[in-house]
């Protein structure tokens, strides 16, 4: 593979990869992006979907965000250098797609309120207590908790996905979980 890094670092990374990750990386390295995308969809769609649903709280929005994430990954493959894990890279793309959807949702709701025209019924408080607790967290805190506990990323991968230092990722995740626990009791 032609990814940047020392041979020892590359071998260490390769030894820890799952077979699906190797298939994806080989596809990217060969510039066979459709094959790499198909392997990503098989291996990571459920994780990406769980994360997007946790961020957005809506099944249809989450499914759309998963598709946007896969298309975003396809677009970004020529620039992927293997500096982070595939999971962190993909979930970083998913996070940005979810944040874009949340921003558009906020703009749409604000314009509906400004127009004073009746729009679709909007109930910001879900009856399910876990979703309500997650929804009350800031997006960055919600993302950290979901990446750790719903998707199962390591703190290193969370740091990569959120663009934080390792200590900041740990601190954000722990503090967000504490806030979530307080809100849910």
Give a short overview.
The protein has 185 residues and is mainly α. 75% of the residues lie in helices and 0% in strands.
Strand segment count: 0
H/E element order? HHHHHHHHH
**Count of discrete structural domains:** 1
- CATH top level is Mainly Alpha
- The CATH homologous superfamily is termed PhyR, sigma-like (SL) domain
CATH arch. level architecture: Up-down Bundle
What's the overall average pLDDT, rounded? 81
Q: Number of helical runs? A: 9
Task: Give an overview of the whole structure.
- It is a single chain.
- This protein has 9 helices and no strands.
- By secondary structure, it is mostly helical.
- It has one domain: Butyryl-CoA Dehydrogenase, subunit A, domain 3 (Up-down Bundle).
- α2 packs across α3, α3 packs across α7 and α8 packs across α9.
- The chain is globular and about 50 Å long.
- The termini are far apart.
- About 6% of the residues have low confidence.
Summarize this structure as a short list of keywords or feature phrases.
185 residues; mainly alpha; Butyryl-CoA Dehydrogenase, subunit A, domain 3; globular
Task: Annotate the secondary structure layout.
Blueprint: H1 7-15, H2 19-29, H3 33-56, H4 59-76, H5 86-115, H6 129-136, H7 139-150, H8 155-162, H9 166-184
